[in-house]
From TrEMBL:
SMART domains referenced in this protein's UniProt entry, alphabetically: AIRC
Domain PurE as annotated: residue spans: 119-251
Gene expressing this chain: larB
UniProt xrefs under InterPro entries: P2CMN_synthase_LarB, PurE_dom
Name used for this protein in its record: Nickel pincer cofactor biosynthesis protein LarB
SUPFAM superfamilies assigned to the protein according to its UniProt record, in alphabetical order: N5-CAIR mutase (phosphoribosylaminoimidazole carboxylase, PurE)
Organism: Lentilactobacillus raoultii
Pfam families: AIRC (PF00731)
Length: 253
């Protein structure tokens, strides 16, 4: 990896993408590169098996572009979450290979295509309004090489729809359940499957749902065993954790 990093740096200097001063600064940093506004973790892939992921919300377009520029020198895949269409358009002008997936609000550039798992992660939603967060989880998991099964709009208001999909859900290694309103779907699925369930409360619902707090508390207080809960609207976190579980199972088979 050190040789790859050095080669990429030299190529970027030769093509005038970065200056010699910037390259020198990168070579003198141990495990991270300081851009003043961000310290980009260039060692994360080696430590954890997953490269740095850029959280796009709250960052300017210029800051995101700067971080991408650094990550290109490490030859890792680049994943940017929570990117608005306006920012995505500007970033694409600089890096046309960055693909924008509007439903998930994710930008992705896979410099290295990961080997796909044999096992599957099931992403299940209560309703169509949860799709944005579900797609964030699904695309995150796929970016890390996981096979993903999308099972959408099977909430408890029409629970027969869930039963029609049970075989597909039960065949997955790990199940991500995305639900707003009262968040009951995670408990129902937790009582029907023998796999880990990662529950994602969403900020979908009427006034008393308190922007996802109601779903969060329901999931945290579930009487079904084996349910782990991530933060409100944290599709990325759920997809990342599901990927870790899926790859762990894959490595033991």
């Amino acid at each position: 990896m050190a040789n790859e990093h050095l080669t990429n740096l030299l190529n970027q200097v030769a093509s005038h993408e970065i200056t010699t001063e910037q390259a020198f600064k990168q070579l003198n940093q141990a495990g991270f590169i300081d851009l003043d506004y961000a310290k980009v973790d260039t060692d994360r892939q080696r430590r954890t098996g997953y490269s740095e992921v850029i959280y796009g919300e709250g960052k300017t377009t210029a800051q995101i572009i700067g971080i991408i520029q650094v990550m290109l020198t490490t030859n890792t895949n680049i994943l940017v979450t929570r990117v608005s269409p306006k920012k995505a358009q500007k970033i694409s002008r600089v890096y046309p290979k960055m693909v924008y997936l509007k439903k998930s609000r994710i930008m992705l550039w896979q410099q290295n295509i990961p080997e796909q798992t044999n096992n599957t992660i099931a992403i299940v939603t209560a309703g169509t309004s949860d799709l944005k967060i579900a797609e964030e989880a699904a695309v995150t998991a796929e970016a890390f090489g996981n096979r993903v099964s999308r099972i959408y709009d099977v909430g408890v208001a029409g629970i027969h729809r869930l039963f029609a999909e049970l075989d597909a859900i039960r065949s997955a290694t790990v199940v991500v359940v995305v639900a707003g309103m009262e968040g009951a779907l995670a408990s129902v699925i937790g009582g029907l499957v023998d796999k880990p369930v990662i529950a994602v409360p969403t900020s979908v619902g009427y006034g008393a749902s308190f922007n996802g707090l109601s779903a969060l508390l329901t999931m945290l207080n579930s009487c079904a065993s084996g349910i782990t809960v991530v933060n409100i609207d944290n599709g990325f976190g759920a997809g990342y954790s599901a990927s870790q579980i899926n790859h762990l199972v894959e490595s033991e088979q």
